[in-house]
Structures are given as C-alpha cells and as structure tokens.
Design a protein that fits this description.
Chain A: Forms a complex with SecF. Part of the essential Sec protein translocation apparatus which comprises SecA, SecYEG and auxiliary proteins SecDF-YajC and YidC. The complex is a heterodimer of chains A (about 550) and B (about 325). Chain A has about 550 residues and is α+β, with helices and mostly antiparallel strands. The C terminus of chain B is likely disordered. Chain B has a four-stranded antiparallel beta sheet. Chain B has a two-stranded parallel sheet with strand order 1-6. Classes of the chains: A alpha+beta (about 550), B alpha+beta (about 325). Strand 18 of chain A pairs antiparallel with strand 5 of chain B.
Amino acid sequence: MLDIPFWKRLLILGLVALGLLFAMPNLFYSRVEQHNDAITAAERNGFESQEEAVARAGWPDWLPSGLVNLGLDLRGGAHLLGEVHVQDVYKARMEALWPELRDALAAQREVLGAVRRVQAPEGQLAVEIGNPDQMARAVEIARGLAVPVTSLTGAGQSDLAISAGGNRLTVQLSDAEKAATDDRTVQQSLEIIRRRIDEVGTREPTIIRQGKDRILIQVPGIGSAEELKQLIGTTAKLTFNPVIGRGADADARPGPGNVLLPSMDEPGVFYVIEESPVVTGEDLTDARPSFDQNGAAAVDFRFGPSGAKRFGAYTSANIGQPFAIVLDDQVISAPVIRQAITTGSGQISGAMDVEESTRLAVLLRAGALPAEMTFLEERTIGPELGQDSIDAGRLSSIIATVAVVAYMIASYGLFGVFASVAVTANVILILSVMSMMGATLTLPGIAGIVLTVGTAVDANVIIYERIREELRAGKRIVKAIDDGFGEAMSAIIDANVTSFIAAMVMFFLGSGPVKGFAVTLTIGLVTSVFTAIYLTRLLIVFWLEWRKPKELIL
Amino acid sequence: MAFRLKLVPDGTRIDFFRWQWLTFGISAVAMVASVVLVLVMGLNFGIDFKGGTTIRTESPTAFEVSDYRQALSELDLGDVSITEVFDPSFGETKHVAMIRIGTTQETGSVTPEQLNQVEAALHTVDPQVVFAAVESVGPKVSGELIKSAFYAVGAATLGIMAYIWLRFEWQFALGAVIALIHDVLLTVGLFSLFQLRFDLTTIAALLTTLGFSVNDTVVVFDRLRESLIKFKTMPLIDVMNLTVNETLSRTIMTAVTTGIALTAMLIFGGDVIRDFVIAMLWGVVVGCYSTIYVAKNIVLWLGVKRDWSKPDPKEKAPGEDIPAAFRDAP
C-alpha cells in the first residue's frame, strides 16, 4: 500500500491544491461578493455602470469566485414558511365557470325551464332548473363544458365532478383535477413570489416548495419578516366587476353569484358586485406608478389584447353604468363608465401614497397570487447577531484546530504533524466543496466543522494506534505502517458509514440550520476520509523515501 | 527518546467486566432516572416544538429582568418569560435578554402590532434596547416538527442497526442500538435536569451523538470480530477485555480530540449555539462510556457466533470471475 504511483501522488496533491484554490475566495469574502454582485447586476441590466466595473475589478475574473453561502443565522435576514390556501382556487374556478354554464343552460331554456343559481358550499356550483325530468339533458350540457385533466396521474379523467338530485345540479372540481390544480397553484405562487422578490432585487433569496402546499422563503439582508410578508403576503388580486348596488349596510344579502365588498377609502360604504369578473389582473401586461390629474399617487395599467377586447366590449355595452375596481376583496373605486375604453389602458387612483403605489405596481406586474397564504413560521435575525456568530464561530474554530493540532503533535510527534496537515487540509476542502456547491453555512454548520476537526483525526488515530501495535509486535517500520493502514481500513469505513447514515437522516428531516449542519457534516465525512487516508499516507511515504528511517518512535 | 503524551499506557490489562453489574446498574439507573426526570420536570421545549415567539433583545446598558417584566405585564400577551443571557464575549456594553411569549391565540404567534407594543413598552424602561432576532413558530408547524424529530431519531437508530446487522451479527446490532438508546435517554435527561432549551438543533446534536457513539462502538466491534477469529478458543469475556484494552488508547484519544474541539466551541462559540454544543459534548462522554460498558455487555450476554471461518472470497472457483453470460461463449 505504500507504493503509490506517481500519477496518484499528483492526483492527491492536485486535489488539495484545487481545494485551496476554491476555498481562497472565502478569505476575501466581501470583495468577491461585490465582484459577483456586479456581474449579476450587469447581466440583468445589460450594461455595466462605473461602480460595477470597479467592484468587478476588485477580484480577478480568472480566479474562482464561488463563495460559501452564509445562512440566515449568520448573515441576518428573514425566514418565512407560508401555507398556500389551495382551496381558494376551487372557488375561483367555479365562479369562472358560472357564466359559461348559465349561457349553455339558458340556450336550452324551452327544454330545461328556468335556470337559477342557488347557494352552495364553497367550491361548488349549484343550479336549479325548472323541469326536473329534463335533468339528464342538463347534466349532459354541463358535461360538455368539462375538459380532460392535464396531469400525469390524472390523465384521461374529467376535470368536473357533476352530480344531480331532484331539480338541483351540482358541479365541482373532480378529485384528479383538484390534485392537479393544487400542484399548479403552489407552482404559480412560487413563481410569483420569486418574481416579486426579484423585483426588489435582494441577493440570493431561497424560495422553495416544502411538502404539498407550503413554500419556504428566506431572504438575506431584508430588515424583518414583517417587511417580507407585506411584499409576498398580499395576494394582489385585481378584478374589474359589474356593480349591482351601493349601500351602507354591512349585512345586506347580496344574493347568489354576487358579493358584498367594503370600499377601500370610504368607510361604511359597501358595494354589491357580481362575483364573476369582466377582466382580471391576469390580463394585465404592464403596471407602473404614476400620478392622476390631481397629482395624487396612482397606478397606470395596460391590458393585453384579449383583456383589452373584453374590457372594450363590456364598457361599450354598459355606458352610464358603474363598474368596480376590486383589489383583494376591497373596492378601490367604482367609477361610472363614460365612454367605451378600447385602448386597453387605464388608471387606478385612490387613497395611497407614492410608496404604496410603487408597491401596488410591483405586485400587479408580478401577477396575483392564485390563492391566499398564511404564515406558519416567521424568523428575523438581525445582521449584528449574525456577525457576532460569525466572529465567535471563526474564533472557536481556530482555537479548536490549534488545540487539536497541539494535542496530536504531543501524542504522535512527527506523525502528529502529518495528521495536523491533514486536518487543516480537511477544513480547507470542506470550505472549497461548499463553495463549489454553493452550499449554505449555518451556525450549527460551523459547529459541524469544529466537530469534524475533532473527529477527522479519529481515522488518523485508528491508523496510528494500529501502527504502534504492529511496531510493538516487532514488525519493521515499513511493514508496520503498511499493515497499520490496511488493518485500520474496515474500522474507518464502518465508522464513517454509520455517521453518514445519521447525517443523511438529518438532511432529510432538517430545515434551515439543521440542514446546513447535515450538509457540512456529510462533506466533512467524505473529505476527512480522503485527507486521513490518502493525504496522510502520501506524507508518510514522502518521509519514508526521504529519511529512510531505521527506527520509528510513535 | 522523544516525548510522547500518552493518556493510556501501553499494554493495559484492565478488567472491564469486573464491576460489570455496578457499571451496567449505573447505566440502567441513569436511564430510568432520565425517563422519570422528563416525566416529572418535563423538557424546556423551544418554540420549534411548542410554538410561540422568542425575541432576543440587546442593549448597551444594564437592565433588570423585573423592569422588563413590569413593562410587559401591562400588555395582554399571555404567558411571558424573560431570561437574561450571559456570555464572556459580551463585555460591559452588551446586555442580552431572551423574551419568550407563549402561544396566545389560534395563530400561535405574536402579531406585528403586539410586537410593536412590546418594543414600545421596552423602550420606556430602556430607550436603547434593540431586537436582535425575532422568531415565531405556529402550533401547526411545531406539532409536525416534534413528529418529524421523533421519526428522525427513530429512522437513524434503525438505519444504524440495519447497517451493523449487515456488517456484523444481530447481537452486535442489538448491543449497539441499546447503547444508542442509552445515549439518547441520558442526553434528554440532562436537558430535563438543567432545563436546557430543547429544540430542532438539539435533535441535530442528538443525531450527531448517535453517529459518534456508534462510530466508537463499531471500531470496538470491528476489533472484536478480528480477535474472535484470531483467538477461537479464548472465552468470550477475555476476548472482549483484550479488545477493549487494545482499542482503549484510540477511544480515549478520539474522545479527547473531539472534546477539545467542542470545548473550544463551548467557551468561544457564543451563547446562541451553547446548548447545542453542550448536547454534543455530553454525547461524546456518554457515547464513550456506553461503548465500553453497555454495548459490549449486551453482546456478552447474548453470546455470539464463534466460528467465523468462511470460505475466503479471494479463492474463487476457476472461471467464476467471468460473468455467466460469457462463460460458455464459443
């Protein structure tokens, strides 16, 4: 085993050198970070500003620029775990279906009799028809509106579950469609949250799906979870609905298919509006902050072609009637249509300041969340606390390494020096692998590195103790070292596999800091086996070849 | 002769089974005591597991916990606990408190308005106070986290047991697992005794302890298997003593290096991570003990297969290396 071919020596030393190279950017953390930020900013904007050029020049382009990602607990920022109310979408789908179903059933009025929408639980659409004996016909018409589910698991099934009893026809989404919709809702939410956060332009946010209907959001550098919530917690659902009536009664019964919504700026005023919108925020192509003719903050918006067409048709048919601009279940305003609006652009004005109008424009442009979100977990970590943790982590890692090195050298002399080189190389390799992977270092992760410093020498200890025994048994030096490495191997592998199992479990259980810890631990296990076995052996072989020792005191 | 620091002299012949009833008895009593402690005193669950809100405040001026409590008592926050945090690194100009607000309503966390009220109330007694960190966890999530923590410790234990079973014999797997349960119980017991904060990171520490403890056990088992093959007729108890003596130096050595590293972290790592480090440090001590005094005893009592002579895999029948599909190819 001590006969290491030249290419292998080169490979081992090369790997360590690479590790050094890739770990190096972390020594110049802020400089490299500015360099990287400048490049991203330049890519996004398409040009490079003066300051960006300076920041980019702060770190040579040809050097690796990957950095260990600092976790929220080290950098400060906000963490949110949100749950998407996927059921909201069922209701919206039924609302959207109603005009279609109404028209289809009304076309057969002479057969079916009068068609009337009745109260139904949320997510269901219930209709009563005049001639119950013609129910089969009504069901057939409703079925004609269904389309096949578009998902891998539910393919071939209808998206609507239609049931009939007496004179009542009930329509709701089928289970397969619900599953497919849920998935789409969460994906859309994820996408929209990402867009909203990107618009604000913070660095490296983490936005990932967790489980069936949850989204984990981590944004470093943001002031508080509250700020983040305001940005992503608003659904920003914009609709334009026909107005039925206006009043001051908060308990008025709006009737089926209609809703009673409060006004945003006029306290005590309520509007009854038709629940099915004419156009929605999804039809918007652009929204930007502006000012109305009185100089108050407003938002200009523009519809896409189909939205503009529908809006144009509706306004030209309803001149003199009011229509409501509804944002998140509040009526922003209900202007009267004076003329047909066919240009597809308009303005929302109301009681808002410039900051609010800017945020509203961002929200409208990024799109509405398809469903509401509630937050199950909120964490804010201040940047000072993070910096304190970094400092404490750095100090304790250095002290731990020095102490372990001193102890190893006191115990094993020259071989202790070899082990110390291996341990140091191990820490560097952990950092470089994490930089290359863009893995996140958390405070427990730092503890993981410190722990690895302690356990990484374990493999060396197993080997050295074994060599000691072989020497005591009277073997010659080379033979003793060779056997020591060979015999220790199975213990080292077994020991590391069991630790690996524990680390894997942690990785899959863990969230945030715990996951970071598991990643660090796992990387540390792999690199420590490499440094303890290959690097140490190579160092010993170099020494044997150079000194050709006759005796070895270990 | 060069100086070598040796905590364990060469060629020890300690009889580790001499006091086996005493040592095992201590372990059994400690395990039972831990369970009783947890049942009687309970655990100081962090918000990860219990839900609620914690606020970490920092102020350059000294404060009295009672003043803070007074200031907050006027707000209707439900269950509030305030503790002052001490750390050698803080110096004169840093005074830290942890305020924990229990789950008040359905949402399980403090509303932003309440947070502002808390901040305003504290400002009246200490104008320079700032919130260094605010964390809230709702009851829905905390319930799930507890469940997944249980699963994780269970899954890790089973995974490790399965691996040892594969590599050794079932007696070894059982011995290792009972040692693991011993370690977990004693760690949880320590957290109950000193009412240290028990949260997700504690579970991480517990899992690491499992890995470390079993690591130790496996090294001894590996050696034991080797000795069993070498000394076929020696009584099992003697082989075990021999093995532990042979590996004692390594066990102590590794425990000491890990202990040194963790102690550095304990002292200089700051207060945020302290409980986590305590759990791991204690895990190292307990893990070391359980390897020598628990895992082995179980294996001894269960007995173990003594005939390890199996056909050497290197001596293959002629032609066996060639995949079957090619063997009879023309």
